[in-house]
Design goal:
12 helices; six-stranded antiparallel sheet; Rossmann fold; 393 residues; 27% helix; 2 domains; elongated
């Protein structure tokens, strides 16, 4: 309820988006990490506490009083003298469970404070100014991690990036989606990195391989010697990392075969990131029959004159457009095909993943899609990006 109230109240949302550490406890707005100077000229951190006035139970209205409470020693100027301009009362009280105060302050504008943003920022400015004069590195805006108390949220902590950009409603288009990523060798891991930052319901990882030394050099993040020494399954390694952010990362430590392919039936979208063409075709055929859209990635790099050249590919298939797949996707086990080499470089894996995720977000309605392309390639040596198999072709 705390974050819902903050999201629905423009003044509280602005405080949070600007980096203030705020939380609603009982009927109080609690603002932590406010720097101040005590009587010994030491920099300390206190807590502002303001009684909330709500207009309809889910949104704030104008504060009923200009007075604000404070937990901590009485703030002083940089010489250690109490800031008498705001001095109001001193009394140690417990206002609610986990909400304590030691002082109250009074700084009243002619018409009071119109909202909690104005009230909090004014008091924070007065209280923290002496501390900043002693150390310009201190701040009342720590941008601390905000735990999401919404039981329905897929994240362990609040997505303040989306709220700051006011794109929560656009992000909501990903809700209820179940995503599968088949193959975590390089590109698939970068796809996970990007998809895990969206509010999809579930992310299913399919790969039977272990996470080995060479994987560390073409995947996101930096694995430790200790982790590499345990040779974990790729899906378990990545589920452990991205499970810190997203609650519903589902590892499946096996390959997709004819015996378990029905597990894909529940998916909304599937990313295919495998290099075995026979398996790729089997998965595509199944997804087409199940009317599940998918994105197949390909990366072909070769050595020429002591340099690397190659092409990065993303091919999309849906129940409405799939006649291009036979010509655009390698299905034969031919080592000489354009996408059949095994040279992989982290930046190209990352680019391949970004291209695939951009297309998924277009189909989901997050980004505008005027071309409706179903086959995109990027040629490295000529820096050429081609969109083909559009809706007009």
């Amino acid at each position: 309820m705390s974050q819902q109230l903050i999201n629905r109240s423009p003044d509280l949302k602005q405080l949070r988006d600007e980096g203030y550490n705020i939380v609603v406890k009982g009927g109080y707005l609690v603002v932590r990490q406010i720097p101040y100077v005590n009587s010994n000229r030491e920099i300390k951190y206190g807590i502002l506490v303001s009684k909330l006035t709500l207009s309809n139970g889910v949104q704030t209205s104008k504060p009923e009083t200009h007075v604000i409470n404070f937990e901590g020693e009485h703030p002083c100027d940089k010489e250690g003298n109490e800031i008498i301009q705001i001095k109001h009362a001193t009394s140690n009280q417990k206002l609610d469970e986990g909400v304590f105060i030691n002082h109250s302050f009074s700084n009243k504008p002619p018409n009071g404070y119109d909202n909690y943003y104005l009230q909090v920022t004014r008091y924070a400015e007065i209280i923290s100014a002496p501390a900043k004069s002693l150390d310009n590195g201190v701040t009342e805006k720590p941008f601390d991690v905000v735990i999401d108390d919404d039981a329905e949220s897929v994240f362990h902590y609040l997505d303040t990036n989306s709220s700051r950009a006011n794109i929560n409603m656009i992000n909501a288009k990903f809700k209820k989606q179940k995503i599968a990523i088949i193959g975590l060798g390089g590109t698939g891991a970068y796809i996970l990195d990007l998809v895990a930052k969206t509010c999809v319901d579930e992310i299913h990882l399919f790969d039977g391989d272990e996470f080995l030394l060479h994987n560390a050099f073409r995947s996101p993040g930096a694995a430790s010697n200790e982790i590499l020494g345990t040779k974990p399954k790729k899906v378990d390694y990545y589920a452990g990392i991205y499970g810190n952010m997203h609650k519903h990362i589902m590892p499946h430590d096996y390959y997709v075969t004819e015996h378990n392919i029905d597990e894909l039936k529940q998916m909304s979208y599937v990313f295919i990131c495998i290099d075995r063409n026979a398996a790729r075709k089997q998965v595509m055929d199944y997804l087409l029959s199940a009317k599940i859209p998918f994105f197949d990635v390909g990366l072909g790099v070769n050595t020429v004159d002591d340099t690397l050249i190659g092409t990065v590919r993303v091919t999309t298939g849906t129940e409405f457009k799939n006649e291009h797949l036979a010509a655009r996707v390698p299905f034969g086990e031919n080592d000489n095909n354009e996408y059949g080499t095994n040279i992989q470089v982290a930046d190209l894996n990352c680019l391949n993943a970004v291209m695939a995720v951009l297309k998924w977000k277009k189909i989901s309605g997050f980004y505008q899609d005027l071309e409706n392309e179903h086959h995109t390639t990027y040629s490295i040596n000529v820096a050429q990006l081609l969109n083909e198999e559009t809706s007009a072709t």
